[in-house]
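Re: the pair you flagged

First of the two:
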Amino acid sequence: MSEFVLSETPPAAAEYIGLRAAMGWGIVDEETARITIERACFSACLRRDGRLVGLVRAIGDGCLYFAVSDVMVSPELQGGGHGATLLKALGAFLKRAAKPGASVTLQPLAGREPFYEKFGWVRCPGGPFGQGMVFKDVPPPVGGTFG
C-alpha cells in the first residue's frame, strides 16, 4: 500500500501545471506557474509515491490578508479525506500566522460551500462581507473550466 506524505513545501511548476490540468482548470505556462507558486505565502503538498496528488495554497501578506487560492485533490482520489488533510494543514498555518483582525477569504466553486463549512469557514452574506466578486475582464483559462 502506498503512503501519503504531506509537507509544507511548494510544488514544482510542472507538477502544478499537471494538477491544474487534471482538475480541468486549464493550462498555464511554466513562467506563470513559477511566479504564482513563488508568491504564495503558504503551500502544502500531498504526495503519494512522490507524485503530487493534492495541493492547498494561500496568497497574501502572511499576517493580515490571506486568500485561499488553490484546494486541489487529483480526481481519482477525491472523496478519500485528502481535501480534509489539506484544509487542516491550511487551518494550522492560519492559526499561527494570522494576526488579530486578519482577513482570511475563500471563494469556493459553486456548490462546494458545505465542504468548507466542515472546517470552520462561514458564508459571507449577512456578515461584514458580500457574496464575493470576480473581475470580469480576465480571460478564461486555456482549455479548462471552473464549473
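Second of the two:
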Amino acid sequence: MIKPLRMFRFAFPRIAAAFFLAGSFSACESDEGPLVKDPGTPADSISFANDIQPLFNAYCTPCHGAANQKLNLLPCCSYEQLLLTGFRAPYVLPSNPEGSLLYQYLNGNPIQMPPSGPIPPHDIESVLLWIRQGAKNN
C-alpha cells in the first residue's frame, strides 16, 4: 500500500503540469484583438525614400517642386529642405510629430496641405510614424 504523502509527491507534478498545459492553451483562445505593431522595431520602420518621398511625389511636388523657392519636395532636395534649408525649416521635429509643421499642415492646422484636400489617413499615419521614429533619412 502506498502511503498518502508518497502518493501526493508522485501525483502532484503530473497534476500541476496538466493544469499548466490546459491554462496555456486556453490563454491562446482568449487572446483577441488586432496585432499591434511597435513603430520602433526595425522591421516596421518607415523609410523616407520608400514611404515618405513617394507621398511627396504624389501629393506635394506639383506645387512644391523646383520652381517653389520656399520648399522643394522633389527627391533631390526634400529631406534637406524639410529639416534644414526650407523657408520655415525645420518643418519636421524628429520624434515630435505634433510639434512638426509638416504633420500639422497635413492635418489642416493652421492650413490644409495639400490645398486640394486632405490626403488619405493611412498616408498621414505613415508621416506620423516616420517622424515619431526619429525622421531618419533612410
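Confidence is low (pLDDT under 50) at residues 24-31, 33-41.

-B.
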